[in-house]
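Structure tokens please, single chain.
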Amino acid sequence: MNDVLVNNMDLFVKHDFFSKKLIDNIPGIFYVYKQVGQKFLLFAFNKQHEKITGFDAEEALNKEPYFFVQDKDHEAITEALEFIQIRNHVKQVYGSIVTKEGDVIPHVFEGYRFEYKSEMYFMGLGTDISDLSKAHEDLKRERLERGRKEKELLTLTLKDKQKEAVLTSISKKLDALKQNAKDKDVLKAVSKLSEEINSTFIFSEDNWQKFEFLFNNLHETFYENLLGKHPDLTKSEQNYCGLIKLKMSTEQICTTLNISKEGLKKKKYRLKQKMNLDKALRLECYIGKF
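Here you go.
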């Protein structure tokens, strides 16, 4: 059967279709399929085809393209074969070759239809994209990890939101009790408890340290670049810029910094002045570039 393969390839080489040496040294797999009725059967291929798939001429010749790929890729192959008969060519067909040993190797295929002695064929190339697929998976994992870190950051800054609502309600009730308290000891105890509750609303130094650690893992050069441009920013201003970088809402920032919307508005105005930014430039857009 090896002679059949050689003869089939030589058939084209003799008629100056291909250079056999060139074809055998193509880094990817080269194939020629012959149309037989409604099917396309493998007619000739290069050495790389055998090396990668593990199937020799006797095992591979006269097989349909489906024979070499995963079952889940059959639909894509069917669409490609239909397309090649309409447009005479097809590109960027993604599928994974299943080798004789059972290994799965992702490839991208292309094909070009031609006629020879009143019979239809298509030839094409398959390129190993294992490295590209790995890079894609790495990027996907990186995005998932980035999303996880962002969620962790937001959870850290907003985890006490529900508790705060409850404590705010209690604080208001304590303020009402203070207005009506006549006993000095009771008034003193209520005032102390109210202060303790109000102090829990402040984002603790420990939380800021956790925030900074997580933030630096997510945006490694943010503070370095920011301070390179604006070295006189205070720690509080740096933290505020970090919250802006995370695209947190006004309400979320107010909760985290424990300030009112009016207080945040003034903080934002003073920061823009300190950075010497144009009035028309949105602080969020400027910070987002770091």
